[in-house]
Amino acid sequence: MPRDNSEQPSTDATSVIEIRDLHKSYGALEVLKGVDLVAPRGHVVSLIGSSGSGKSTLLRCANLLEESQQGDIRFEGEPIKWKGHGLNRHPADRAQVTRIRTNLSMVFQQFNLWSHMTILQNVMEAPVTVLGRDKAEVEEKAREYLAKVGIGDKCDVWPAQLSGGQQQRAAIARALCMEPKALLFDEPTSALDPELEQEVVKVIKDLAAEGRTMIIVTHDMRMAHDVSDHVVFLHQGLIEEEGAPAELFGNPKSERLKQFLSHSQ
Ligand code: ADP
Ligand code: MG
């Protein structure tokens, strides 16, 4: 099924992230084979696809945790400066990389909270140590974000004392405390039991309703349907189909997407 380019969101400097024709290989394995991904400001883009299709790799390339061999990545219209080309391509400007990475906060499947720090300390850590912000101001913000995700009473406990759903909400508060331009979620509910999953889905829905820019890799088709402005179906390192959620889920065109959705219910 050829891609219908008319369904891509329009692009301009109001996009927080804009990726064009991205190619990424690990050795001989080409994982991304020319992928576009645009996150316009205030939009939610969901990435769906089978395990191994390249979703995590694409997110990691977007915030420069991974290098890529070919293609254009822009942050708020500003192109990444590269040094070299092909397999020898590297970001040229460390300050640019740091600025972009701190503006694209990631939330991972496995929360990754520091076990030796309280929840409050976890949320305060990066804004204080990486961004050098004032500790008292960060603490005030951290408490606000923890209250926002519904665990304002858990500031002084250790991560191990929280349920998985609470830990993931703490991880979301930690990402928010960086006050990033966009949030990138990699399967944020996959490690959770179904009843805990819904706590986290609710927080993500609230963030979407606030108009936050987000890219969400998820296996949760209901959440993708409910929160997204645009859904991208990745298959073996290429975009097989993309579009508005009602259209993509209600009227899938490619056989691969139909098959994928039939296994995801
Ligand atoms: P998804 O998130 O869609 O499940 P990934 O982006 O994690 O897919 O992986 C895509 C492909 O890249 C898989 O074949 C995976 O084994 C491979 N891959 C991912 N990370 C690495 C790595 N660091 N080194 C080598 N291969 C990798
Ligand atoms: Mg993955």
Automatic annotation (TrEMBL):
The way it spans or sits in the membrane comes to:
Peripheral membrane protein
Q: Which UniProt keywords apply?
A: ATP-binding, Cell membrane, Membrane, Nucleotide-binding, Transport
Which InterPro entries does the UniProt record give?
Answer: AAA+_ATPase, ABC_ATPase_HisP-typ, ABC_transporter-like_ATP-bd, ABC_transporter-like_CS, MetN_ABC_transporter-like, P-loop_NTPase
**Gene3D superfamilies, A to Z:** P-loop containing nucleotide triphosphate hydrolases
MF terms in GO: ABC-type amino acid transporter activity; ATP binding; ATP hydrolysis activity
> The ABC transporter domain covers which part of the protein?
17-261
- Kindly indicate whether the keyword ATP-binding belongs to this entry: yes
Query: Does the UniProt entry include the keyword Cell membrane?
Result: yes
List localization entries: Cell membrane
Which Gene Ontology cellular component terms are annotated?
A: plasma membrane
The protein's name is: Amino acid ABC transporter ATP-binding protein
* Native source organism of the sequence: Aliiroseovarius halocynthiae
